[in-house]
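agent> Task received from the user: take the single chain below, predict its 3D structure, and emit structure tokens. No templates, no multimer pairing.
agent> Plan: (1) validate residues, (2) run structure prediction, (3) serialize to tokens, (4) report one or two observations.
agent> Step 1 OK, no nonstandard residues flagged.
tool_call: predict_structure(input=
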Amino acid sequence: MTVLEVRDVSKTFVGPVLEGMSFSVENGEAVGIVGPNGAGKTTLLNVVVGDVTPDVGSVWFKQQNITALPSNHRCRLGIAKASQIPRPFDGLTVFENVLTAATFGRVGDRSHDEDVAVESLVTTDLLAKANSVAGSLTLLDRKRLELARALASQPTVLLLDEIAGGLTEAEVHVLVEKVSQIHRAGMTIVWIEHVVHALMKVAERLIAMSFGQKIADGNPSHVMADPAVREVYLGVEGE
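)
tool_result: status=success, residues=239
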């Protein structure tokens, strides 16, 4: 079943950022999005999550047109995003950060908020640091916290915006394993990332973008071998 669909979306700021962008995501699928800087990847995710309104086109979630809905409504419907730069409430504990997401980011029985928060901390290996102040965490643990807050809203679709950025190779491996575990548990994931080998370990499908347009979509190995993708993303001319 198609859970997320972007239809012919265009967006212009100073110049065009997205031009006629379309793609769909099936329930349980892990989709990676690659492209050079300026390709429009982050803007695309911001359109999906509701932080940016498209000039043209629409966003559909579970067969519902959500283009006019604000981001907080989309979160409660089941779309959550973890960003490249974590922005937790630094003065609150890890648990309080995740509990806030469980309380305000989802619909359901409020009596289960604490249980949902604890489950998210267990999933992200943060339970031992539940009482630590968020501002004291390492970058890797702040990334984990960003994931935990997104998961605490109990999303259907998890959007990941370059969350491996700034990590060491060993830390990237830890994060990739965690994202893979979350996906294997049934989570639908859309992940944009410059660390391509991280995407290749999780994504079942890759979409390549250039100048706001989709230039390839399909099997990850086939997409990365596509001459057009190699030229715009890797700087290698296709024959």
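agent> Step 4: summary for the user.
Residues 1-78+180-239 form a domain with the Rossmann fold fold (CATH 3.40.50.300).
agent> Done.
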